[in-house]
Design brief:
single chain; Arc Repressor Mutant, subunit A; D-Maltodextrin-Binding Protein, domain 2; two-stranded antiparallel sheet; 11 helices; elongated
């Protein structure tokens, strides 16, 4: 096989030196391999000329089919790599959703599908075709989403060329520690937020503006300073700060569900401001029909309905 590879490369380049560079060996090694192949076949494959190499009739007959054979071998290896590891389901999920919604539920999917090795990759990426980066940095719409079989993303759901399913809508409401509902200045009415530290995260309103002013306007409250407070890069960090009693976060109930149910966090007001963005499952058209991808997508939808 090494001798055949050396011949094929040398025949394409008409040069032992260029073939050696491609194969990462010395020109002498290429020459030795081809000499051994010629001895084995009992005929010359090259005319060795001062200006380079020329193929004999035998070399001309061998080269096309040999090149085709190596091409098919390469295609077979590429096809195997493209299938991914057997029994492995790679899932890319927005970081906060992965930590506060998916992780506490994932044991149910694993119990139902013990044959699958689920690998979760937490990602902050928004798939935004309008920015020219629909997949993972290389701009190739046929490539897997960040090397994942299926992704859960927070966005507008406008991902042309992909199988997209809306998972769940999103709204925001003030969320805090139950401790802030008591004390000298208890949080009982939206206007009481003027006496609290406001916690901000990286989420913005539909028009790109900050969330706190939008929620306060919807609540009919004025005079609350929204320019100051604590700021975090992730919604889950803002919720943790709120649970520690550091202030009031404007968070998604879907991310705080377990803590709200346990009483670790409280949502003091009924007003929830809906956002245009939502969570979506996204996969390539090719991967969408796979049994494991379809099973995970259906399970996510069932969990969202719960």
């Amino acid at each position: 096989m090494n001798a055949l590879r050396a011949f094929e490369a040398a025949a394409r380049h008409r040069s032992f030196a260029l073939a050696a560079r491609e194969l990462h060996v010395t020109p002498a090694a290429v020459s030795h391999q081809i000499k051994g192949l010629e001895d084995f076949l009992g005929r010359a494959l090259f005319h060795r000329l001062k200006r380079g190499l020329d193929l004999t009739r035998g070399g001309q007959a061998l080269l096309p089919r040999l090149s085709e054979g190596f091409g098919r071998l390469a295609d077979a290896v590429d096809a195997l790599r493209a299938t991914g590891e057997e029994g492995t389901l790679a899932v890319s999920v927005a970081t906060s959703l992965a930590a506060r919604w998916l992780a506490p539920r994932l044991h149910r999917f694993v119990a139902e599908h013990p044959q699958l090795d689920v690998r979760i990759h937490a990602s902050t990426r928004l798939i935004d075709p309008k920015k020219g980066d629909p997949v993972g940095g290389d701009g190739d719409p046929s490539a897997p989403l960040e090397n994942a079989d299926i992704a859960v993303r927070f966005g507008a759901g406008d991902y042309p060329g992909y199988r997209v399913d809306r998972l769940m809508p999103v709204s925001v409401t003030p969320i805090c520690s139950p401790k802030l509902l008591q004390g000298k200045r208890p949080l009982r009415e939206p206007a009481d937020l003027a006496h609290q530290v406001l916690i901000h995260d990286n989420l913005s309103f539909d028009d790109g503006g900050p969330l706190w002013p939008a929620w306060l306007k919807a609540a009919g409250v004025e005079g609350v300073d929204t320019a100051h407070g604590l700021r975090f890069s992730h919604a889950m960090l803002a919720l943790e700060a709120a649970a520690d009693g550091m202030g009031v976060a404007l968070g998604m109930p879907v991310l705080a569900g377990n803590d709200l149910a346990s009483g670790r966090l409280a949502a003091p007001f009924t007003l929830a401001l809906p956002l245009r963005f939502a969570y979506y499952t996204v996969s390539t058209a090719e991967d969408a029909g796979r049994a494991d991808v379809a099973a995970f997508r259906d399970w996510l939808q069932a969990e969202a309905r719960r």
